[in-house]
Amino acid sequence: MGGESPPRREGSRRPR
What we know:
By secondary structure, the chain is low in regular secondary structure. It is elongated, with a radius of gyration of 7 Å. The relative contact order is 0.35.
């Protein structure tokens, strides 16, 4: 799933 930005594997949700 990814609505706004593709969730990376660095921060469970969005690091930035």
